[in-house]
């Protein structure tokens, strides 16, 4: 049993995803086509069902997120290693100082 969904329900989903429902559609059932505009300006339409189930998100933002992850990996993995090595060296250095009573 599920609560009856309303247009307001989808408006709140959209708001939580930084989207906005556009056009003058009426929610009739879960297969109603809804139109959405993302905060990035991209607009698309899909069924209320797929939007609710998060199967349809903003393709533009998805692409950006993927490229961000990819470039992030390229930058952050060697960076993280470098920082880890630096950290270990500092620890060794600190131990050395302790050993020598400095
Ligand atoms: Zn977007």
Description:
This protein is 55% helix and 15% strand. It contains three helices and three strands. It has helices spanning 7-16, 48-52, 59-99, and strands spanning 19-22, 33-38, 43-47. Strands 1-2-3 form a three-stranded antiparallel sheet. 7% of the residues are buried. The model has no long low-confidence stretch (mean pLDDT 84). Residues 38, 40, 42, 58, 60-61 line the site of zinc ion.
Characteristic key phrases:
102 residues; 2 domains; three-stranded antiparallel β-sheet; binds zinc ion
Brief sketch in words of this structure:
The protein is an alpha+beta fold. It contains three helices and three strands, in the order H-E-E-E-H-H. It folds into two domains: 57 residues, no CATH class; 33 residues.
Helix content: 40-55%
Largest sheet: 3 strands, antiparallel
Uncertain runs are none
Roughly how many Å apart are the termini? 71 Å
Number of helices: 3
Bound molecules: zinc ion
Please tell me what the overall shape is.
rod-shaped
Helical/strand content category: alpha+beta
- What is the beta-strand fraction? 5-15%
What's the structural blueprint in terms of helices and strands?
Layout: H1 7-16, E1 19-22, E2 33-38, E3 43-47, H2 48-52, H3 59-99
Antiparallel strand pairs: 1-2, 2-3
Bound molecules: zinc ion (ZN).
Residues 38, 40, 42, 58, 60-61 line the site of zinc ion.
